[in-house]
Amino acid sequence: MSSEPENLAELLSNFRRILKMTDSKSLFEYDSKIRLNNKIICGVDEAGRGPLAGDVYASAVIFNEDVFIDGINDSKKISEKKRERLFDEIIQKSFSYCIATASVSEIDSINILQASMLAMKRAVEGLSVVPDLVLVDGNKIPSGMPCKCECIVKGDAKSASIASASVLAKVARDRYMKELAEKYPDYMFEKHKGYPTKLHYEMLEKYGVSDIHRKSFLKKFYARHNEQKS
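RESULT FIELD:
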């Protein structure tokens, strides 16, 4: 016979699972309401605006109206293990999807905001069909989009399409950073994914800046080194 604490733990676990499923349903219901006036809707989001190294990623996702995926939410609120599982399910159940990037050189040339917009535009352009409406996470619409767009602030917590795009972009970028970790083992990208952590700065101090670092993000780092040399 199970003890009372074990029964309570099981009840709490089931309650949390039901809450998460309810959250996911509300995201898909949000999209269903938008489909009343726009048959083919697409969610688009980016990942990797903050890191000091690597490309910025974006993804665009279109679902058929009868699709449901349990666990869909903002990628930042989901564990890495769960994101990996959802990645495969999103791709399998999507009507169309595309993952696109903007390079480090583009980030340094046009700034991270414009590079993020460019990656999102490329993701939408890479879809197999032109959407009736693109739901863009945030408050800015990328210029030159091939169809009608609508901004949704914190859209990855409201729309299933945007949340799914968030997961695809995040997982794809994390995998890319792990690949870079094999090419540039000194920087330990597999641990921090290029973000400005204490470990990352320590590796920069020790090994210097590589060709996949965003030079425009490291002005303070360069300034500090110039002061030390002078």
